[in-house]
Amino acid sequence: MLSCMRIFALAVILAAGIVASVPQNVFCATDSEIEESIRDVLAQRHPTDTPEWWRVLGPSAPGIIVKLYENTSHTYHRVRLIEALGWFNDRAASEFIKQQAERTGDDVIRNAAIRSIGASRGTQDVEFISKFLGHKDPQTRLTAAEALRRIGDQNANKVLEKYMAEEKASWIVAKLKGEPPVPRAKLPVVSTSEDKADLSFSRDFSGTWKGYFIAPKAAASTALVSDEAVMTLHIENTTVLGGELLVKRKKQSQKFSIQKTTGKAARISGTLVKRISNTNSMELAFDAELVRHPGVLLLTGRISRLPGVFVLKRD
Length: 315
What we know:
Elements: H1 4-16, H2 31-42, H3 51-55, H4 61-70, H5 75-85, H6 91-103, H7 107-120, H8 126-130, H9 138-151, H10 154-166, H11 170-177, E1 207-216, E2 224-237, E3 240-248, E4 254-264, E5 267-275, E6 281-293, E7 296-303, E8 306-314
Antiparallel strand pairs: 1-2, 1-8, 2-3, 3-4, 4-5, 5-6, 6-7, 7-8
Helix pairs in contact: 2-4, 4-5, 5-7, 6-7, 7-9, 9-10
């Protein structure tokens, strides 16, 4: 027998006389049906859900989202779920997001939580967001500052103005002002156009990148498979990047720390390190390049000994 939820969805489609994407959720849906709908959305490679899609799941949805968050270690799914919680006017959901922002050691989750709080509660949580303006991670400071700028009320603008006057990382201030980065020193006179490029890498590398690692299905196969990938990069100094790469595979995710990274202009190279035990680790060389299209900035690259390429877009 069809549930009342599915009957309702079918009735909407028939009444409209069209085939449409109707979220399988109305208030008569059971918790298990709501959970199934959420899992379906998380599995989509090209998500089309909207804030309204999540809100129409009903008042029990935040509790289900929290349960799904706690039962997964998948960074990309956790980010999506944290963002989804922000669309609900729910005090318990807001407190949970704040807890993740304060307690997690994962900067990707932390920054997603800060953005979610800023988008959902805005003026009510300027003081909470402003605490992260002093965080040791520069990307977290930038995320908090951007959240305050989006809030844009008198209080948020006052806090942001004070922060920008005190921030030591000039590239953060320049980014908030929308200014291109200023070279630290004059470039040497060289003979070729390539050598005239900035001897350090582009600051556009810094941030969170999401996309896929694409590889042949098998050695002799022409078919391709893709696994979700998330890379975070942060600037350690003018010529070194740090961060991590997470590749979500069907059997087991692989998480690498990014080390020994150097670069020039739009290209970087370095080492991916995966800890196997307390005494053993695996190291793989990688290289990556920024690819610019109108309105789109991509990060593409390859990993030694792994057939395939990764293609990522900045979050």
